[in-house]
């Protein structure tokens, strides 16, 4: 009836009014005259449906410990979820720390700890940790350490006799019974001399040496620098010296080809002294041996000096423990499957041992010595070829022996997952902008490592001198390597291993080198004016590097033919090797990696028609503004300025 409906509406109004008063007075869900304790007592032992509940559920909740669980790495999104934050807040903190991160970036344990502390959280390690099984719990006692052979790497310029010298040393060690046999090549040689044993690493040169060091492998105890007596110090000799110095390895010099009539050892010693390697006979501390690989002259003296140097270095290791080593080289053999040369660093490797190496596990099925003989075990500093890998490992990977097969598989699976995470997330690298973020305290002195490449020697010397003068008490500038010509893959590897920045003055890298730099996370800077270069370095040292106008790389083409067109000039018949070529874009013409022209494209044609742009894989005709000295093999590299 109408009366009943009016009564119902008035009841709802009264109830609504009472709830409003309760809300204003802070009485939630109870009568106004009840206090908190009465409501708690009335609710004890009861929940919806009248069933009893634990009385603790109604007590005020204690503040939970602010902790997050992290394995070896954690994504930004997962970390934000655990802390109940938005991912943008964590990204802001990372940006302040000099780390450019995305929501899917994987943060390592240390970075996660630093970020969590900003929000008042503690980080605890969770899950399986391989360090519990691979990191030694105790330091080797002095009485357990025994002398081990030195590991020697031979470096030098092309055609200066590195391989000949190594072959001569190896043949001197082959006994009469083995002279007619085929010695198996495993990338390392174990030589016995009157004064002890020596292990020589047979690498293609300093590139492989530095590639291993870039992966954290420091296996060499001594470097022998081979210099031809009739040729003197060359560009690759300088590179080899810089690579060895960056690794902090002692250098010995072998002056080879002393049997030639044109040999001039004094010239070699003088040029080495200019590079900071002063021979002992000239009052310095660099050991120099004069040898001839073909006539075997001076080989015994060289080996004796190596043995003497190793005695001074007191190289020791514990052979009575589980083996640990490094991969020298690896390959896939048709008959035997994946095989790798392992240089044992400590412990003794036995046939039948279970091991883990990178993302692979395995069991030692067979061991082969450098002479091609089967052996049952190998001690410290000995190179052996190991069969039993599940896959082909990378050179420089660590090799660990573990207690059982299950543990080896578990560690390998864990590493494979981490490797996939690392591939998804780009690793941090040293750049001029983020350089100062490495400093942990104001008192710490930072070193800015640089690799300099210039078009001419005069510019290189001027830039090196100008940069070294900028060193202060807080920041020291170290030119790891300086050279003329194009930026090479060797320069990228050296920069990667030394945490260095590459500075290119009037040079530009090829497309392939750009890819290598991107893969190795190496920062490359290009300059054409010396004072601008010095200003940028000074600003980076002060942490105030201004935003620079960057070039946007468009593409590269290769000149395959040239055509002379009346009233226009020389047209470059080009093949677009990378990216695209755009009309009216800025252009640099590279010849052997050195810039010979900077300007604009005056014309771009595809067959007989004008083209706006020509993409990779197509041919085109390119005309350069006010420039006709174009040769076959030149590379027009395209770029335009961007704010």
Alpha-carbon Rg, integer: 34 Å
Determine the number of helices (DSSP H or I, runs of at least 4 residues).
16
CATH uppermost class of the largest domain: Alpha Beta
The structural domain count equals 6
- CATH architecture descriptor of the largest domain: 3-Layer(aba) Sandwich
Please state roughly what percent of the residues sit in beta strands, choosing from under 5%, 5-15%, 15-25%, 25-35%, 35-45% or over 45%: 25-35%
**Class from secondary-structure proportions:** alpha+beta
Biggest sheet strand order reads 7-8-6-9-10-11
How would you describe the shape? Answer: globular
How many strands, what sense, and barrel or not for the largest sheet?
6 strands, mixed
- The CATH homologous superfamily of the largest domain is termed P-loop containing nucleotide triphosphate hydrolases
Secondary structure: helix percent: 25-40%
Q: Count of DSSP E strands?
A: 33
Give the low-confidence spans: 18-64, 174-184
Mean pLDDT across residues: 78
CATH-assigned fold name of the largest domain: Rossmann fold
Characterization of the model:
There is one protein chain. A 6-stranded mixed β-sheet has the order 7-8-6-9-10-11. By secondary structure, the chain is an alpha+beta fold. Helix 3 (76-83) crosses helix 4. Helix content is 29%, strand content 31%. The longest helix has 24 residues, at 2-25. It is globular, with a radius of gyration of 34 Å. The model is unreliable at 18-64 and 174-184 (pLDDT under 50). The protein folds into 6 domains: 2-56, no CATH class; 67-125, Arc Repressor Mutant, subunit A, CATH 1.10.10; 149-314, Rossmann fold, CATH 3.40.50; 324-418, Elongation Factor Tu (Ef-tu), domain 3 (Beta Barrel); 435-536, Rossmann fold (3-Layer(aba) Sandwich), CATH 3.40.50.10050; 551-642, Elongation Factor Tu (Ef-tu), domain 3.
């Amino acid at each position: 009836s109408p009366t009943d409906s009016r009564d119902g509406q008035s009841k709802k109004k009264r109830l609504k009014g009472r709830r409003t008063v309760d809300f204003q007075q802070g009485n939630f869900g109870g009568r106004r005259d009840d206090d908190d304790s009465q409501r708690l007592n009335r609710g004890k032992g009861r929940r919806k449906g009248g069933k009893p509940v634990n009385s603790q559920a109604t007590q005020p909740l204690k503040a939970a410990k602010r902790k997050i669980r992290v394995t070896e790495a954690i994504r930004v999104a997962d970390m934000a979820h655990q802390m109940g934050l938005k991912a943008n807040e964590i990204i802001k903190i990372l940006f302040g720390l000099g780390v450019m991160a995305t929501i899917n970036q994987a943060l390592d344990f240390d970075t996660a700890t630093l970020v969590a502390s900003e929000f008042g959280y503690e980080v605890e390690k969770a899950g399986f940790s391989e360090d519990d099984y691979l990191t030694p719990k105790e330091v080797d006692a002095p009485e357990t350490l025994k002398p081990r052979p030195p590991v020697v790497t031979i470096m030098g310029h092309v055609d200066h006799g590195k391989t000949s010298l190594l072959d001569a040393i190896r043949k001197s060690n082959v006994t009469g019974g083995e002279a007619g046999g085929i010695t198996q090549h495993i990338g390392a040689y174990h030589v016995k001399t009157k004064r002890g044993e020596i292990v020589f690493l047979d690498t293609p040169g300093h590139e492989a040496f530095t590639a291993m060091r870039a992966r954290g492998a420091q296996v060499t105890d001594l470097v022998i620098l081979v210099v031809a007596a009739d040729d003197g110090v060359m560009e690759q000799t300088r590179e080899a010296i810089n690579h060895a110095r960056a690794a902090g390895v002692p250098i010995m010099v072998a002056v080879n080809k002393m049997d030639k009539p044109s040999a001039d050892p004094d010239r070699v010693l003088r040029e080495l002294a200019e590079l900071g390697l002063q021979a002992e006979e000239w009052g310095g501390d660099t050991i120099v041996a004069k040898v001839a690989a073909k006539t075997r002259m001076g080989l015994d003296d060289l080996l004796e000096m190596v043995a003497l140097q190793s005695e001074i270095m007191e190289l020791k290791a514990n052979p009575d423990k589980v083996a640990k080593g490094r991969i020298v080289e690896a390959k896939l053999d048709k008959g035997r499957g994946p095989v790798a040369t392992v240089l044992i660093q400590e412990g003794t490797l036995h046939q039948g041992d279970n091991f883990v190496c990178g993302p692979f596990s395995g069991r030692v099925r067979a061991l082969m010595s450098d002479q091609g003989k089967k052996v049952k075990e190998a001690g410290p500093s000995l190179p052996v070829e190991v069969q039993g890998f599940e896959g082909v490992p990378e050179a420089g990977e660590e090799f660990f022996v573990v207690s059982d097969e299950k543990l080896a598989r578990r560690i390998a699976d864990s590493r494979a997952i981490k490797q996939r995470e690392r591939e998804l997330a780009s690793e941090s690298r040293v750049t001029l902008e983020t350089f100062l973020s490495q400093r942990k305290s104001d008192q710490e002195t930072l070193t800015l490592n640089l690799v300099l490449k210039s078009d001419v020697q005069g510019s290189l010397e001027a830039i090196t001198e100008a940069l070294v003068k900028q060193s202060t008490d807080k920041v020291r500038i170290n030119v790891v390597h300086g050279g003329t010509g194009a930026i090479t893959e060797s320069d990228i590897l050296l920069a990667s291993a030394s945490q260095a920045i590459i500075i290119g003055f009037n040079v530009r890298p090829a497309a392939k080198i750009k890819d290598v730099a991107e893969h190795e996370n190496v920062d490359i800077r290009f300059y054409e004016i010396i004072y601008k270069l010095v200003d940028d370095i000074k600003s980076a040292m002060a942490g105030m590097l201004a935003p620079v106008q960057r070039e946007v790389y468009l593409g590269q083409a290769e000149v395959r033919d040239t055509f002379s067109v009346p009233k226009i000039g020389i047209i470059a018949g080009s093949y677009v090797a990378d990216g695209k070529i755009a009309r009216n874009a800025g252009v640099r013409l590279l010849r052997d990696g050195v810039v010979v022209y900077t300007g604009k494209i005056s014309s771009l044609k595809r067959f007989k028609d004008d083209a706006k742009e020509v993409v990779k894989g197509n041919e085109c005709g390119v005309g350069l503004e006010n420039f006709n000295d174009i040769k076959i093999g030149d590379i027009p590299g395209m770029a335009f300025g961007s704010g």
